[in-house]
Amino acid sequence: ADDYLLVHDPVLESETSGAGEVIATHPGAVSGLKIKHRGEITAYRPPLLSEVVALFASHPGRARLQIDYKYVYPMSDNEPLRRLIGLIEPLGERVLVSSGADWHLRKLRKLADWLDLGFDIGFYLDYRPQPVDMRLPPHRLGDYGYHDDHPLAARRALPTGDYLSLRCDALLAAAPFVSTWYVHYLLLSRCLDDGFNMAEWLHGEGIRLDAWTLDAGKPAADHVVRLRDSGVDQFTSNTPRALASLLNGVSRS
């Protein structure tokens, strides 16, 4: 393979007319795939990364491409990461690669020190008021009310805000070179409830904060003004225009 198929989930049937694991898909089968939207097969083909890079290159401007590198398992061969770097290098500072796999981020840093990187901390610290797939780390509910497998979470010995600050210290050490953290909005909101402003903490380290995923018309949107006012720099959304209108209609507190 010399390209990447741009999809969100690890199996084709989630978003396309195909079936099976994305990573096992033969390049020759990609051209026959169609995007699935709300359960219906459309006439549109899922794009390849090279096609999106070419589209960006043909439209100079401020828009940036964020690639969330979903394959998290360690790899003995750097070829997939080198291939990724080669495909996106023409975009330079207009591209950012994010991942929850800090081991991939460290490799990417070594292979391409020019590349802007982002860290999704959800494998290490999360807040889950509703059950989620228990195969996803962190697996243990800690004594502070957060899902966290770190020994610090096993027994409440500090004010919650101090515990959260220590956890952020450790996560920063795992990937100190990233420009942006990607954090679930419920975790950010719970941190604020517990007296810890993650945006403020990150800004002290020179790091931006993205809250995901907040869509207008859904319960998540109820959090967006509070998070903006706490200092969140940007929001991941499937309804960006509607979310921007919502924010523009409410003055900062």
Which superfamily, in CATH terms, is the homologous superfamily of the largest domain? Phosphatidylinositol (PI) phosphodiesterase
Q: In which range does the helix fraction lie?
A: 25-40%
Q: Which CATH C-level class of the largest domain is it? A: Alpha Beta
In the CATH hierarchy, the architecture of the largest domain is: Alpha-Beta Barrel
User: In which order are the strands of the major sheet placed?
Assistant: 3-4-5-6-7-8
- Quick check: average pLDDT? 96
The run of helices and strands is EEHEHEHEHEHHEHEH
Overall geometry comes to: globular
Describe the 3D structure.
This protein has 253 residues and is of the alpha/beta class. It has 2 domains: 1-47, no CATH class; 49-248, Alpha-Beta Barrel (TIM Barrel), CATH 3.20.20.190. Helices cover 30% and strands 12% of the residues. It contains 8 helices and 8 strands, in the order ββαβαβαβαβααβαβα. α5 (185-193) crosses α7. The N and C termini lie far apart (51 Å). The model has no long low-confidence stretch (mean pLDDT 96).
